[in-house]
Inverse folding.
């Protein structure tokens, strides 16, 4: 049985306490549990009872919302001490269902402000992006579109920048020593649920760019990333092979023959509305997608080592815009992808619905055409091959911020934000080109820094204090809920005995080396002592 299903079986057994309502549950978690119970009943869900498992209250349902044959007491809403909610059903067919999917099925609302707490990952939702980011045509576009859409201004801005960078091609660039940085960026827009209007925030920039360069929109947008070879094909070079030259039936030599003309336009914007699928595929053994994506960001030279795949791409200009829910992002981004540099080539952007527009927005074709006419001149300028450098004022500012940008952070957050300097450099290049400037000026760098500040806070919201080691993170979550510590046996039981001693020892060692966990012997009333694991006081305060 699936590990999560086994764990669910364990927690649905009576553990600590059981009530018909939440009146016996103290503090804020009791208030949240009561709100969850009442909300579930208002939505037509039958609540059987409430149970407590350590610091989590489980609102047990009469039937699973995804399969009514699962129940009663086989599914429930989990109310955690930190304020987060989760949905679980122990049946294998539902074991991978997410809170976002539960929201979609039930129409579950946001909790009232008084019951909202900090994000369980250790960071709040990002504060609004600084106005420094909304300069030039990018800022004009956001101010023009924002009143007519439910999408967040941050999602609109980043996707506009991503599309502009793709459209102008490989010519404009900047450099750091021997490393060339083009205008292509990789963006992941994530929200708390599928109702964060991630997809609608893509529509308006695409509409504007279709009026600027219809050829680019029709030929250079693609989706469906599944393999490295599939990423090469839309931007492949001509494919040739040697064929024998015969005279009178004898081979007298060989000649190179073109069997595929390749693709002249090396611009490619990959649009993935279901980025979770890409993460799943890239994590499969033998799949070449992850290294190809890294190469696409680095230098645009893509080649496969597969014997039966002769396609090669050089000079490719590949950009990516992807959408995913926060829960899927945390679940599917593996430690390997974080460690190998896949994740830090992406800019992670938190997005949520900015307003309610029951009738939708209304931007006329005439209004959009006026904006596109101005943007077309900008694209013509920006598309020319040139290298941009920082001017004197921008260099001074860069010297001030560089130590902070280049300072590494711990855990998974550090892994996914490990290319801060390069990402800011590319963003500043985009702003300079949008201003039709021959140099990267201070205002362009400040705009890029404002974007990066929001992206970094977004990543902190998504990953917070996670280490990237899934076993260690689960242990750490449990230790935080147990001030009196946990024995080795209790830690083993967290995984329903599905993890080996070596895996658990490695995870505990991982936490101990980082100062996140410590062990000491604790004597019981009978006088026997046992080794208990705790979260150190300093780490508990920091969290």
């Amino acid at each position: 049985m699936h590990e999560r299903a086994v764990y669910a079986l364990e927690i649905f057994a009576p553990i600590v306490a059981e009530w018909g309502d939440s009146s016996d549950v103290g503090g804020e978690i009791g208030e949240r549990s009561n709100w969850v119970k009442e909300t579930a009943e208002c939505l037509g869900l039958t609540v059987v009872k409430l149970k407590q498992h350590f610091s989590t209250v489980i609102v047990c349902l009469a039937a699973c919302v995804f399969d009514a044959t699962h129940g009663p007491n086989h599914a429930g809403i989990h109310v955690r001490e930190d304020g987060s909610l989760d949905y679980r059903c122990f049946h294998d067919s539902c074991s991978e269902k997410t809170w976002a999917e539960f929201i979609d099925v039930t129409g579950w609302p946001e909790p009232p402000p008084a019951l909202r707490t900090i994000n369980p990952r250790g960071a709040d939702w990002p504060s609004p992006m600084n106005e420094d980011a909304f300069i030039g045509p990018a800022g004009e576009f956001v101010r023009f579109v924002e009143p007519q859409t439910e999408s967040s201004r941050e999602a609109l801005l980043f996707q506009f920048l991503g599309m502009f960078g793709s459209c102008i091609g490989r010519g404009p660039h900047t450099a750091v020593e021997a490393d060339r940085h083009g205008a292509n960026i990789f963006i992941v827009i994530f929200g708390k649920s599928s109702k964060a209007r991630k997809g609608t925030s893509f529509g308006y920039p695409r509409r504007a760019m279709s009026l600027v360069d219809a050829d680019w929109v029709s030929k250079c947008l693609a989706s469906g990333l599944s393999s490295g070879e599939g990423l090469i094909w839309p931007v492949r070079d001509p494919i040739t092979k040697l064929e024998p030259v015969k005279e009178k039936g004898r081979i007298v030599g060989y000649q190179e023959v073109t069997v595929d003309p390749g693709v002249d336009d090396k611009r490619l914007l990959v649009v993935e509305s279901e980025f979770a699928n890409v993460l799943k595929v890239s994590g499969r053994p033998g799949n070449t997608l992850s290294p190809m994506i890294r190469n696409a960001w680095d230098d645009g030279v893509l080649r496969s080592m597969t014997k039966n795949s002769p396609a090669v791409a050089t000079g490719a200009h590949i950009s990516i815009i992807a959408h995913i829910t926060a829960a899927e992002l945390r679940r599917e981004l593996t430690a390997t992808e974080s460690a190998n540099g896949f994740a830090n080539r992406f800019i992670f952007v938190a997005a949520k619905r900015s307003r309610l527009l029951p009738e939708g927005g209304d931007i006329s074709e005439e209004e959009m055409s006026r904006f596109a006419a101005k943007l077309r001149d900008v694209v013509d300028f920006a598309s020319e091959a040139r290298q941009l450098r920082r001017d004197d004022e921008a260099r001074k500012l860069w010297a001030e911020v560089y130590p902070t940008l280049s300072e590494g952070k711990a855990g998974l957050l550090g892994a996914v934000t490990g290319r801060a300097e390069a990402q800011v450099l590319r963003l500043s290049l985009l702003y300079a080109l949008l201003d039709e400037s021959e140099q990267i000026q201070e205002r362009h760098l400040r705009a890029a820094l404002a974007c990066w500040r929001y992206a970094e806070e977004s990543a902190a919201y998504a990953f917070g204090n996670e280490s990237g080691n899934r076993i260690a993170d689960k242990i750490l979550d449990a230790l935080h809920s147990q001030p009196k510590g946990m024995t080795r046996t209790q830690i083993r039981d967290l995984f329903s005995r599905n993890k080996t001693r070596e895996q658990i020892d490695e995870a505990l060692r991982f936490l101990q080396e980082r100062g996140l966990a410590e062990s000491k012997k604790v004597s019981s009333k009978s006088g026997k002592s046992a080794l208990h694991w705790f979260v150190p006081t300093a780490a508990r305060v920091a969290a």
Summary: The chain has three domains: 3-115, 131-222+266-463, 470-542. Residues 47 and 61 are 5 Å apart (CA to CA).
